[in-house]
Amino acid sequence: MPRKTTSLCRRILLENYTTRGEKMITNLSDRVFVIGTGTSANSVLVCGKKFCVLFDSTLFPEKARKIKEFAAEILGKEIAVVFNTHYHPDHTFGNEVFDRIISHSLTRKSLEEMDEEYIRKIGVEVSLKFPDETFSERENYRFGDIVVEAVHLGGHTPDSSIFVLKNEKIVICGDLLTTGIHAEIVTDSDLFGWIEALSEIEKIRADYFVPGHGKVGTIEDVRNMKDYISKVLRFREGSVKHSELLEDPNFINREHPELLTWGLENIIR
């Protein structure tokens, strides 16, 4: 289970950050905070001695500003840099609030290809901010006492990347992992690549695996997601029936079944 902070004052402040009765912030330690409400995209804020690093900037610039305020007012630190796990709007549209953005090169390319019609359909007023820096396959970064390994894996989307915080024993998985809800399988998802990506994540020794959506997971959640995507792949190939998926505990115990219906439609078009 996520650890409680040692500061009573900070814990009380954290408990007040809620949305519609759901706790908005889960603290994994005194320096790592997962910001999300279960179904909304998770952001991860890592606070070092001098400043903070944020992973994914949410869909709404206003929410991104709230995260920035939380870092400044509650933690007393500025956010020095934001990493994007992939290009989807619920992970990138808050970029405009921050000065420095880092992502995979394909993430920047996909953001650059978003036109006004695409943004209009999303329904969010935003001034797209593209990443200032990009990486290719694997890159190591250090921001004071915060050490980040960026790894491009693909799968969920061609640009999907994970970020490994070895000192904290945390892997930030983006939408390669979801817990408690169905996966978001999109038209550019590569199911074979997704399974390979999860196999790579399985090899990492960590205490926490932060999903793109859902509560913070463990290695078992990574294995369950791998099983989930494998069965979806078998469904597409015809070796698993739709009725079998609906009877599988790995499927029926997840919320938002409309995501499954939508995802299956995306892979059989």
TrEMBL record:
CDD domains listed in its UniProt record: metallo-hydrolase-like_MBL-fold
Chain ranges of the Metallo-beta-lactamase domain: 40-213
Source taxon at top rank: Bacteria
InterPro entries listed in its UniProt record: Metallo-B-lactamas (IPR001279), NDM-1-like (IPR050855), RibonucZ/Hydroxyglut_hydro (IPR036866)
SUPFAM superfamilies: Metallo-hydrolase/oxidoreductase
Pfam families: Lactamase_B (PF00753)
Stored PANTHER family: ACYL-COENZYME A THIOESTERASE MBLAC2, METALLO-BETA-LACTAMASE DOMAIN-CONTAINING
Record-given protein name: Dehydrase-related protein
